Amino acid sequence: MIELLAWPFVAGLVLTSMHAWLGLHVLARGVVFVDLALAQVAALGITVAILYGHPVQGEAAYWHALAFAAAGAVLFAAARAHEASINQEAVIGIVYAVSAALGVLALDRAPQGAEHIKQLLIGSILSVTPREVAELALLYGVIGLAHWMLRRPLIEVSFDPLLAGARRRRVFLWDVVFYGSFALVVTSSVRIAGVLLVFSYLIVPAAIAGLFQSSLRARLLLGWTLGAAITAAGFLASWSWDLPTGPAIVAAFGAATALAVISRASLRSVLMWLCGVVAVSGLVLIAAPQVEQPWLPEEMFLSADEREIRADSLQSVESASSELARLRELEQDVRWGRERMDPEKQERLRQYLAGRSEILAGDQLVLKALSESARERQRYVVGIPLLLIGLGALAYLFSGRARSRPQ
Amino acid sequence: LRGARAVVIHDSWTYFAERFGLSLVAAAEPTPGVPPSPAELARLFARMREAGVKLVIADPHSNPVLVRQIAEKTGARVVTLLPSGTDYLGLFEENVRRLTQ
User: Which residue on chain A is closest to B25 by alpha carbon?
Assistant: First the structure.
């Protein structure tokens, strides 16, 4: 485990160090989606490189990505000066959508286009080499040092543009410096970690830190700590539950955000959300009983015969799943040469596995049909009370909130 | 090469392997574009070392980072086979040439 995860984890720490800082700027500027937009522009550059026959991880692809991202950075810096005519966030959204669409159009002409898109989104943090981590750390070190030396104008332009204007700072120039270094960071990060993970590193630590701290220094320190802790949790989840590492870390960032928000919310707000969920569950059950809602009790809505069939099917699914897992393991062992088996037996095993899988699918189909029958019967008997209880409790909580407000 | 065990990056080349007597033991990335989990990768490396599998079959669009990592960790030789070409027989000759090189 350590051998495989050590360098990817260090890469996660390096990403945290730079992205938490840039995330604070991005949140202060109110341009949250600038990272996704720049990453998408960089991905468009990589797509163009792929179309020209360059490998996705090659140097040519990197320079294509950097050139595209740099152009995007200048565009975003220029957009701020025209904020009165067109909102900067609108420009960012348009650039994101158009870049993503152009990327799909371009990859439509490339073999395995969908696979490339997935690779760009998910990245390959698990396969990062020590050299790549060292290069990334060096690059971020240089950019971090430059940001520290230029911190006064950069912080003023991001956090207090009015003061920057009063001091006659060249806002466009400092925006180009900020977005330019940002584009360089994003381009370098995306090729290792993918668009989704880079966005999470940028926004989540800075956003959670903003919930608990007010000064910039404290937010940065908390952001670094949170980024490191969530990275470790994501790696642990990925290893323990057999999940792809990048998406597992992104999910850990999502869970951390939810926990942080809940911990800051009042009991009343949490109850209001729960009531909302109950009401929506009831509404969905009434309007579309075919939608799966596994938390609803279904057994009591089945007849005695149906309950017996359900119990038999559940038992059959359980025994078939464990038997299939054991036999697939045996088949793997034979393939790898750990077990010996003559070819005729191997073929019989293959056919048995195929047949058993079909029987398992049949049992799952029976369970699905019973579940649908139960939901159909629950539709009004459970759906209407759920909707009324949820809405009633919600109305009560809202009225309580209105009463408790000072006049 | 006949009878040699090989790991493919994606679940492909089954008929090719059957025709030319290769035994495909595992796919490193069963779902194209979704990287394997650390436990899957660790299991793959351990089994490749244990079984002495020294051949990885990739195609031109396999994730190059994953291919490089498997080769580095297990010392296996990577052969990139072409899924398409200008003429059918020439394509097979080229793929066989790459395998036997």
Answer: A335
Of all residues in chain A, the one with the smallest CA distance to B67 is A127
**SS (HEC) of A30-96:** CCCCHHHHHHHHHHHHHHHHHHCCCCCCCHHHHHHHHHHHHHHHHHHHHHHHCCCCCCHHHHHHHHH
Contact (CB, 8 A) for B70 and B77: no
CA distances from A102 to A25, A55, A94, A99, A120 (A): 29, 19, 12, 5, 14
Sheet (strand B55-58) strand order = B23-27, B5-8, B55-58, B77-80
The region that residue B33 occupies, defined by phi over 0 for left and psi between -120 and 50 for alpha, beta otherwise, is left
pLDDT in tens, A142-179: 999 999 999 989 998 888 878 877 777 788 888 889 98
The tokens describing A111, both together, are 């073999």
Contact A143, A18 (CB under 8 A): yes
| pLDDT at A341 > cutoff 70 | yes
Q: Which of A119, A121, A136, A238 to mutate to test the interface with B (most CBs of B within 10 A)?
A: A119
Supply the pLDDT for residue B20: 87
Q: Are A31 and A76 in contact (CB under 8 A)?
A: yes
- φ, ψ of residue B55 to 5 degrees: the values are -130, 125
CB of A336 closer than 8 Å to CB of B51: yes
Across the interface, whether the CB atoms of B51 and A126 are under 8 A apart is answered no
Residues of B in contact with A56 (CB under 8 A): 63-64
B66/A336 Cβ within 8 A: no
Q: What angle do CA B5, B8, B14 make, to 5 degrees?
A: 80
Rg for chain B, CA atoms, rounded:
13
What are the φ and ψ backbone dihedral angles of A371, each rounded to 5 degrees? -60, -40
**What is the model's pTM?**
0.83
CB A235 within 8 A of CB A28: no
Residue B7 pairs in a beta bridge with: B26, B56
The token duo for A83 is 């904020």
| Angstrom distances, CA of residue B29 to CA of A357, B8, B33, B44 | 22, 8, 8, 11
Helix (H, G, I), strand (E, B) or coil at B78: strand
ipTM score here? 0.84
* Closest of A169, A185, A198 to residue A136, by C-alpha: A185
* Strand duo B55-58 + B77-80: pairing: parallel
Question: What is the pLDDT at residue A113?
Answer: 65
